[in-house]
Write a structure and sequence with these properties.
Elements (H helix, E strand, L loop, with lengths): L8 H13 L7 E5 L6 H7 L3 E5 L3 H10 L7 E4 L10 E7 L8 H11 E12 L7 H6 L7 H11 L1 E9 L3 H12 L20 H6 L6 H7 L2 H10 L11 E8 L3
Length: 255
């Protein structure tokens, strides 16, 4: 599995687990919201999916378009707000997106609307307000989630849960301070134009979140093969509530 150009250990573990959740999901048209610099769409292509990747930062979208220009066009990349979409998708992926929206219920209801009957949503959010750091502020997060609150919001917005995992314990809990230290402050970054949304806490911070100090060092340190034993070992804790994030697979309720 190729790494992100600017990976984190949380990214590696999230991607590792998301591939487990893809088992049993039939290939079709997918939508990835907030692609950032991630490469999860490559895993989807290898599984036979085709679709659309969105991000609010047009510079990141341009990077993907240049990088993918000479490959078969299984994926489109657009700097577009997902609230403006009106198509239907068999799979929606949204890693570390929902926490950027004050009106997160609006997002969940829109995702229900964008899913085909029997479709699948796989998403992640940071867990536990007690784990709030300057990195959350810097990234423009509205909140970190608590398990019962997130379950209630999913139920209210029309989802049924297939898997609800709390990931990262104990390794990510211990390495998170390092990850925070490697994050680049957005306060000195240039302004980013794009398709912001009034539902967000801070579009500028959101569009620039994920920037890393020393990307070459991060790329060397956070290689999947280096961490693979830990990725497997943490699976025994997924049913608990001790980790740093939630990873959810759900689908619209059948009426």
């Amino acid at each position: 599995m190729p790494n992100s150009p600017s990976p984190t250990l949380a990214y590696l573990y999230r991607r590792f687990l998301a591939n487990q959740l893809l088992r049993g999901v039939s290939p079709g048209r997918f939508l990835e919201i907030g692609v950032g610099r991630g490469r999860f769409f490559e895993d989807l292509i290898h599984r036979g999916f085709h679709g659309l990747c969105l991000d609010l930062n047009p510079e990141l979208i341009a990077e993907h378009q240049r990088r993918e220009a000479f490959r078969p066009r299984a994926v489109e990349f657009k700097a577009r707000n997902f609230f403006t979409l009106d198509g239907r998708y068999s799979l929606i992926v949204a890693f570390e997106v929902l926490e950027h929206y004050e009106l997160d219920m609006d997002c969940l209801r829109k995702w229900v609307e964008l899913l085909q009957p029997g479709g699948t949503l796989i998403f992640s959010v940071p867990a536990h307000m007690r784990q709030w750091t300057k990195n959350d502020t810097r990234a423009g997060h509205a909140r970190r989630y608590e398990k019962n609150d997130l379950l209630e919001k999913l139920e209210t917005s029309g989802f049924q849960i297939d898997h609800f995992w709390c990931y990262g314990f104990p390794v990510l809990n211990l390495t998170y301070p390092l990850s925070v230290g490697l994050s680049r402050s957005t306060t000195t970054e240039r302004q980013v134009g794009g398709c912001g949304d009034a539902r967000m806490t801070d579009f500028q911070r959101t569009a620039l979140s994920g920037n890393r100090l020393f990307p070459g060092f991060s790329g060397w340190l956070f290689r999947e093969l280096l961490w693979l034993p830990w990725l497997h070992s943490q699976r025994m804790f997924l049913g608990g509530d001790l980790g740093t994030g939630y990873l959810v697979k759900c689908s619209p309720k059948r009426h």
